[in-house]
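Entry: ABC exporter domain-containing protein
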Amino acid sequence: MNEIKLLFRKDILILFNNIKLILKNPLRLLPYLFVVGYFSFFYFRRTVKSTESMPEVDLDQIQDAANALNVVPDKYYAKLAIIGGLTLIALGVLIFQLFRATKKNISFFTMADVNLLFTSPVSPSNILVYYMIRSILPVLGGSIFFMLYASAQVVNQIGMSIAEVILMGFGLALFVFMLFPLKFLIYTLHTKYNVLDYVKRGVFGLGLILFLMMVIPGVMAEKFWHGMFAWIASPWFDFFPLVGWSRAIILYPSHENIWLVIGFSTVYFLVFGIVLYTVVIHSGYYYEDVLESTKSKEEAKEKVKGKKEANESSMSLNAKKQLDVPDFGFGAKALYWRNYVHSSRQDFHPLFGLYGLGFAGLSFIFAGLTYFDWFSHQVIYFYLLILIFIYWIAGMGRNNVGDLKKPYFILIPATWSAKFWNLIKLDLMQTLIFAVILIVPTVFIAKLSLLLIPAFVLAMLMFYLSGFAMTTVTNVGFEEGWDRKLIKPVMMIGVLLFGFVPAIGTGLFVFIISKQFAYGMIGICVGMALVTGVMLHVAMDLISKIEFKEQDG
């Protein structure tokens, strides 16, 4: 117990020191006060507002009436699709994380922990137990924060209380939290018993079973998309490990069964206790096993800060391929040449690769199934929105290698605009080519509106550029690691709140009025044009100021 107290005291001292660092500059507190005020405005306004409630609609009564008429309402399928779609995303995350555990080691530690704790007179088991339990705190805080933000603007319409939102965040946190111990358990058992092949087969089998659980009811239904989520969206799927348990907790506002929440939360803690006990029993003296993974994780952080060069072979399909790349010129064009060489090693072609071919092929399959009336057009629209979201995330991760702070970027004899353009030129070309190859055949196969072609291409470019600019601002504009951790999420929420939400709201309004998805996408593009322009201007302005600071020494 004394060893656990020592570890806890160490973390408390680190927390106090970081708080003192923030208090030295009170201006840093303004973004957080704004966020607290924003949440308070939406959540506490409903307590002073008159309760003019619309008559509540009981979905069970609708379903009973529809069954009596032998008709299934569209709202029922919409609800089924929403629950099934979110469940499918969670299942995809679970399968991906389990598969990733067979490829990459997991570590709860930093190099500072290695240097301090691994040399201290604390038993390995106590260190491991403490850090595995402590890992729930940031996950729990982030999940509750996400739920608060996601529901703040609609709290008056759906009538949720803060307690319900916190409970939903707790369900999300339990799911994310359990992934880390499970991955560490796989790593531990493989280190001692070499069970990696069995785990891979199990993960593949689980993915195949879940795939069949959507295909079989879809084929049996009159329309494929009516039956594809019939099993995974049904109430019995709440008993599926992790995903179903968390779904039952998150959906508490709909079923209001507190005993169901308590039961699944108890199961979570029991499973965590079993996993923790298994890890401690089989880990032994795990110091040497986690050193390599801890070091690789630390190197990734240094690449984000610009202290270390990114490895060109990272995620490369042709790392050892012999290249014959022509000379593109001098000055800022060297940045484009460098990205071109790196992209040539990542895939079979620098402009369009295997990953893009897979995404495009999946879109063609959806379009073909829509053509034969197995899928609804809504499935394609949902897939296109997911791709736009993925490219926004990809834009946020583009400059994580810290190239913008490298001496060669600062000393290149060219204008800042030329450097910035050549830095993102290849990305824009890749995004443009991918979007055109994907959307043009999809539109013609599924017989969609031709306006969707330019709208989708522009949306892909704008969301990618906005994500790139957002990460550029945070990575270049903030030097302290604590500021990166705290201010970056606040800045992202600000951009989402005042940039993305109005743009998406404009598109949604246009879609409701016109009943045309293409028009809604054009509305989103109009709103995002301003957001992307402002973000790119701020990013380039910050880069130029950082350059001046570097020159001033």
